[in-house]
Design brief:
single chain, seven-stranded mixed beta sheet, four-stranded antiparallel beta sheet, about 50% strand, globular
Amino acid sequence: QVQLVESGGGLVQPGGSLRLFCAASGTFLSAYTMGWYRQAPGKQRELVALITSGSSTNYADSVKGRFTISRDGAKNTVYLQMNSLKPEDTAVYYCSAKLLRASSSLWGQGTQVTVSA
């Protein structure tokens, strides 16, 4: 079975940094568009960043310049480097994978990021 597992979340002070990992098993991610999403309590899930199979990237305006999404084909892993973290970034962060012509995406179980003094 294909599985995505997120890790790297935790508690960090405002202005700090975290690096999230999305590791895949059961398939190679090279042909997938990968995304990081987040959901804060009481709010809808929102897209944070996308990276295509060709390594083009897109970011939400709220994180542009602070977050960087990247991928390592050899390690079959996608990363989200988060710098200058703000309390508003507090959420559960989810990894997703989708083939261009697929009707649905694969999802991980999420990792908690808490930004608090």
